[in-house]
Every structure is written in C-alpha cells, then in structure tokens.
Amino acid sequence: MTRKMLTFENFLEKLNNIKEEDIINDEHTEERLSSFLTNFYKKNEGTYTIQKQEYINNLLNILINKIRDNKNKCNFFLNLLCIHFKNITPSFINVKLKDNIYYIHLIINYILYVLNLVLYFEKENKELSLSLCIGKNIYTLTLYIIRNIQEGKYHNFYMKLIEEGKLIYLLCKICYNKIIISCYIPEDTVVELFFVLIKIKELEEYIIECDIIKYFLSFLLYDKQVIKKRKHLIIEIILHMFLRGINTIKVFIKENVTDIINNILKCINDNIKCDTYDYYCINLSKLFYYIIEDKDIVNIENILFFYVKKTSSIITHKKDDILTFYKYINSIIIKINDVIKETLKCKDSVNILNDNKQEDYHFKYFLSIILCVLKNIITIIFERKNNIQQIPDDDDKRIDLYQEITKLLNVTFDFVVDIIYMQKGASTDEQEIYELLSYDILICMTKINSFTHDVDENFSGRLFDLLNCKNDDDINQNRYNDKIIIYTTNKPPDYDNINSDNNNINSDNNNINSDNNNINSDNNNINSDNNNINSDNTNNNYYNNYICNNNNYICNNNNNVISFLNKTYVKNVECLFYLCLYNETNITDFISINLIRNIENIIYKIYKYIQFCNINTKELLNILSLYYLVIIFIYIKNNLNNKEKIHVLKPLLKFLIIKEIKERIFLFINKLYFLVFIKILNLSICNNLFELKILLCGKYFEDFIQMFQVSKFNMKVQILYCFLEWTQINHILKKLQIYISKNKLIFHVFFKLWKDIEYENILKKIKVEREETNVLYKNNYKNVQFILFRIIKMLTNNFTKYIDYIINNKDLFCIFKNIIIYESKTILNIYEQIKDDIIEEHVLLHKDEENLLHKFVNLYKEDIKNLERVFENVAIFYNKKDNIELQNYYDYLRENKRIE
Questions:
Q1: CB 602 within 8 A of CB 550
Q2: pLDDT per residue over 576-616, tens digit each?
Q3: How far apart are CA 24 and CA 19, in angstroms?
Q4: How far apart are CA 462 and CA 454, in angstroms?
Q5: What's the pTM?
Q6: Are residues 34 and 79 in contact, defined by beta-carbon separation less than 8 angstroms?
Q7: Distance between CA 631 and CA 468 in Å, rounded?
Q8: How far is residue 301's CA from residue 299's CA, in Å, rounded to a whole number?
Q9: Distance CA 677, CA 39 (A)
Q10: Of 156, 425, 562, 706, which has the highest C-beta tally within 10 A?
C-alpha cells in the first residue's frame, strides 16, 4: 500500500476515507499507514514549507474527527497521533516565513487543533498514553518559543502565535487537568516553565485568565504534598503577581486572609522546627510580609489582630484563628532565638550572622525577613492599642489573646537584644543589617503604652537599661580616660571665647522667676513634628556600653575623625530618643545626671570636630544632634523643680545657644531641630538657665533676629511665641526695651512680616491662585498677626515709645498705624460678619438686638477713624514739637480700654 501512496495527499485521502472495518479486515493497513507517517517525519526533519504545514494541519484535523466519531474506540487513530507528537519537533516552525500571514495562521490553527484534542479528552474523561506525548511535545514547543522571545528573536511573531493560538491556555490544560494531572510531564518541570512565563509581562493576562493561577493559589490554603523543591517557585510566582498588583491574586488572598496567613505561619513553623531554612521558607515569609503590609487586604481592626467589638465583620473568624496567629508567631521567634542563643553560648563558634558559608545564607536571609515582619506586626498592634488596653474579665478569648500579645512583646525584645549583642562590632553593611532591623523593632516598641501599667513600666525599664547601659563597671572603666570626663565639669571647646564675651556684659542681680504656664504644650509640638523624622535614614549597629565606652574618639583618618560614631551608635541613640519622647512622664527616674553629662561631653566633641568630617559622617551628626537635643529638652522639662539636676546643664545650654545662633551649624538642617532649639531657648531664659543679657550682648541678638528673618514662616511663628512669652515677664521685657532703645532692628523685621501678611491677605481676598497663598492660608495668618500685635504693643509700652523713630522712618510709619488699629478693626470685622450672616440666613432679630448690633459696628468704625486721625495729627505736628497733639495721642491710647 505504501508503494501506491506516493504523496501525502494520497495518504490523507486514504486516511480520511478509511473505516474501522477496513482496519479490522486488513491487518496490514495500520502498519502501512503508520510506517508512511513515520518515514515522512524522518525525511522531513527541521522546518516545514507552507505545503507541508498544510499536510500536518489536515492530518490533525482528520485524526481528531476520526477519534470523535470512533464508536468502537479503535486505537488506530490514537496511535497515529502518538507517532505525530513523538516525531515532530519545535524546529518545524519556519521563521523564514514569519512575515507570511497565511503561514502564521497555519501555525495558529495547528496549536488550536491540539487544544481541541485536549479539550475533547478532558470532556470524555479519558486518561490515555497519548497524553504523555502531547504534554511533552507542547511543553517542548512552548519552551522553544519562550527561549526565542527571551533572546529577542522574532518577538512579535512568537507573541502572535501564543496569543491567537491560546498556547498558555493549552499548556495549562495539559499540565494541570483536574482528571489527569501530572500524567503528561513532571510537575516540577512545568512549574519552572510557568516561572519563566510569568516574567514576560505581555503574557501575564493570559496566565491569569487560565485556571493554573487558581491551582497555584491553592498552595496558600493547603500544604500540598508535591515536590518541595518546586514549592518555592510556586510561591515566587504568586509573589511576583502580588507585587505586580494583579487583582485576581489580591482578591483571593483578601477573601481567605486569615486562613492563608495562619497556613503560611504553620508551614514556616514546621520547616524551622526541622532547622530547614530553604527558599520555600524564605518565599513564604516574604509573601507573609507583603500581605500584612497591604492595608487593602488586611483590615487590622476587623480581620486579624483583634476580636472585634462590632458584630459585623468583613470575614467570619474561626474560633481560634487570631490566637493561632500569635501562637505561631511566638513559636517562630522562640525557635530562631534558640539558634541565636546557641551561637552566643559557644564562645569558640563562628557567628552565624557574620559567617559567609553557603549553608548559613538561607538562615540569614530568612532572619532579615522575619525581623521586617515583626516590625510591621508590632507597629500594627500599637496602632490599635485601644482594642487591647483593658483585659475584659468576662471574655476568656480576649484574655488569652492579651497574654499571647504580651508574650510576643517579651520574646521579641529578648530576640532582638540577643541579635544586637551577637552583632556587636560587625564590620560590614551586610552584617549590620540584622542589627539595624533589630533597632527598628525596638524603636517601634518604645511607643508601647497599650498594656497595663505594670507591663508598660517593666518594659520601659528593660529597654532603658539596654540603651543607657547603667552599669557602674562600664562607667568606672572610663574614669581615668582623659577624653571622657564623667564626674567633673565638662568644658566646651570654645569655653574661653564665650567667657571673654561675657566680660562685656553688665552684671544683673535680678533673679528670673520661673514661669512655666505657657510651656506645658511643648512636647505636643515635638510629637506633631516627629512624623517628619525618617528613622530609616540611620540604619546602624549596636555598640556596647551606650555612651561611656567611647574611647579613642579621634581618628587620624579625616573620613572618620569621631571614631565612636557609626550608624549603629546613632541608631541606639535614636531608640533612646523615641523612648524618651513617647514615655516622657515615665522616664524621669531613668535619665540620670551621669547620662546627661556624657551627652554634654559628646556634644562638645561634635562641634569641635564636625568641620573635619566627610559628608556621610556629617549626616549622622546632624541626626545625632537632634536626638540629643530632644533628650536634653525632656530632661530639663521633667526637672524644672529640681535645681540640682538642671544646674549642671547651664554651661552646655550657654554653649549650644550661642554656637547655633552665631554659626547655625544644625539649626536649618532639620525642622524638628529648629523647633526643639527654640523650645530650649525659651525654657532656659524663662527659668534662669540661660541669662538673656548674654543673648543681648555683642551681636548675638542681631544674629538671632537675622535668624528669624531667614527662617520659614512656621519657624518664625515658634520664635514669635517665645517673644510673646518674654514680654509677659516683667524683668525680661525691661531688658528687651533697653536693648531696643539702642538697636531697633527688631521693628524693621517685625513690621516687614506684618506687611507681608497684609499683602497675602489682599491676594486671598481677590482670589489670586498661587502656591504661596495656599501655604499662607494653611498657616492661619490671623493668629500670627495677633501675636505680632501683642508683642509690639508690649515692646512699645502700649504704642507710646519710639514714636519719633517710627514717624521719621517712612517704611515703618504706615505699618505702625495699621498695627495700632488692628484690634479695633478685627472686632469690627467680626460684628460685620455677624451682620452679613444674619442677612444671608434671613434671621429675624428683635428691634433692640438689631440696634445694639448697629451700635457696635458704628462704635468700632468711629474708633478706627479716631485712632487714624489722632496718629496722623501726631505725625504732622511731631516735627513741629507740638507737645499738645502728642499728649492727646497718649491720652487717647490710655483711655481706650478696648485696645487694652
């Protein structure tokens, strides 16, 4: 029969017309047809022409139809398909014809024929040996196409085959059919292929549309018994799609979030119990991190972390899902910490975190992720502190939860402290990362005020002991170090220069009475600005014995002239900073005089050697200076009634204030530093810790006013608050007035600010849209104008002093007039606004009420006119020495009670 069929056309014709009984009656028919097809593939290895591709497509079409119509289930046609899929190779695609539209459709149709065949097998629930041949062939074909795409070969051509030929859908059906799963090709090989496919952005939507992604996602709910070495690739595929923001992934995770999270933790816990820190474990921990970080998925109030008070929950909890979550977390932390402790116990063993051996790589990678996870969890817990503040006696479930969260706090603290001690002296950035993350966790824990008082107090004490290192032995080690003076008075680097300035100051024996009524809200201002600090800017290492053991602080290398300073040191101080900030009222007993003296000593060193530091070191010093300044501020504020404790700070405050006002080394680098500096300046002057006469000597006060000039508006406001408070203290006000009688720069600066505010108010009224106007609106200039009004009124003794200077200065004259009438004009605006609102709202007033309102409006209008007229007369007659007009002006101001 083979001799008669000289062409493929005859073969196809014979095959199309053959019947089942022909095969049964002639036992050689099957052999001859099979032999012909086998020989055809042997003779035509490589690429096919358009005609030969037509033959192959027709062959598939005929065989598929025959199989569908085969009622007796004859295996002949299946065998021919097996021959086809075993012998055809991916090289049959002829790239030379990539621009031929007809050829492209032939290849697409070929793939679609195979898809139809697979769908038929799925429908008929058939598990055939042919499946293996199809699977291997399509897998090889897909791999061939993907490699060419990755190499940049004929990208558009192959993408068209994949898209229109539904190749991804076909691959999914072949590899993950529900009935015959894993029968075609090894599953781990398929996972690798999809791992490559998902990296091609254009193919994402096709992978998402097929069922393969649902199969992969099922691994998040169940720990399926498949080849473990490929599990990590499945999780990595999910990770990739999650980070790409694929909605299907996020919706699935959100719908099953508690089950997924707990299953992930269970898998991690099971792995590390066997000391297995592989890529599967690492990828699970990464996915867990991203899930809890995504606020669109994890609604922390209603889903995971707390038992809700409301009955309506987005997801119905299982009985113990939240408790299970914390138990798994605690178990994982304890297990990892056991590994750390074992290393600490063995003095001769190599530090596992600093060891570069390959077997320790996975553990270190896993550890760094877990530290990030813990930081997120602790942050979330303390954000929702109101949900766990009290232990409800009638709710056993919440009591258990409270205990597990408390346990989490304790085991986490022990865990990160062990890491810090282990990493002491780590030299490289890679080795420092674990310590940096540990400090970040401690910084999150400094915000703890969510639990009962005894838990809070206990934790704060433990944390402060770690940071402060209040060990007497550590202090005594430095007693005889001439570079660190602990028990004697610290001397600032330019001490002699400051004293020489003071010799020019007239002695003043008047004691400054403490007046703290206006400083109770200082810390709130610091807290509000604290959000601008990016704690991640100072990723650091742990240093032993917090401040005391800073030997050999000068280094010959100019890149590091302050050798004790490194990222770790700054991170430790940052942690101390947050502990003081968030527990201000509870740390009075923890901040010792000795600690403050050491801080003082380090501040002197910073100012002495900062000029020799490189840019990176200066950045660390900028942050370090801020942290120290806040700690000093809190220390002063907490000990205002203890003269012995705050007296030791006088030299430092004197040095700091003069140094910054003169040189502005750190003042304008950080907004919070500026704020705290102004608060310390105000606190020091009002409480006799820094004498105002020092500031008023020489050019210091001029420097201070110039500092005010170049400051941003919100910084100016803080300085104005200081001036306002100073004008309320009689002896300070007198000193300021004496200074102003000789130097009136302050008037020019304040009046200019007033003029700028008026200009911006005009722009606002005419609705001029510009960025500056919006900023001014947010800062509420009306308040600032009132502060300026009060300050100028006090400095000019109710607008009666320095009139000659102001009248003879054209720039000040008009502004001064506007300041005088400001109060009356403000009250008038209020009454007029009330009047307009009444008209607009159609409110009916009683006749007497209406008359009274008109009376007030007219009264203040007349008052403004009188003030303007009297002031104009003073200006006209002042140069004529007309004392009558001047006296009338003074009398009018004194009698005008509304201005008072």
A1: yes
A2: 888 888 877 777 777 888 888 889 989 999 999 888 888 88
A3: 9
A4: 12
A5: 0.73
A6: yes
A7: 12
A8: 6
A9: 92
A10: 562
